[in-house]
Design a protein that fits this description.
Elements: H1 3-31, E1 40-49, E2 52-58, E3 63-67, E4 73-77, H2 82-95, E5 103-104, E6 119-126, E7 130-136, H3 143-165
Helix pairs in contact: 2-3
Length: 166
Amino acid sequence: MSEKSKKIFLAICIIVPFIVYCIVYYSAMIKNAPFRYADFESIEITYGTPSEMVNTYNSKTGEYQYLTKDDVLVKDTVRMRKDDLLYLHRKAQELGFWNVDDNMTNSQRDSTMNQEVPRYILKYTYKDKSKEVTLDADFVGPDKMKDAAKSTIDAVMTMLAEAKAR
């Protein structure tokens, strides 16, 4: 066997199966991704103190209800563009929102604290699945998970403010 035919044989036996394996493995992984934008339906966010969760937004209906500083309940319709929703979907992916715990609340409150801490409930809804995370602003837990959830909530709130300003 010549040197050239040995190299061709080596390429066929090692490189080609590796390329075929990569194509089969990654195409199935991408196809079965749990949260795809193609299946995206809506984002819902609810926030406030645990006793008064009146601030809500639903991207599917566009209903936005919030309390002003004067304790006046305002109901408005705010529509996000598809680009805004795509940005929020990608931001959640980038920050690892899908990997955070669903319940990030503090179960025990200090009885000396009379102050109620803000709570956020963020829900991404897809055709087959949904991801809902409840986060207390003073959550004591892994910093990476808390930061991922808080950053995703901040991105949604920022995009909501931008959409309302339009």
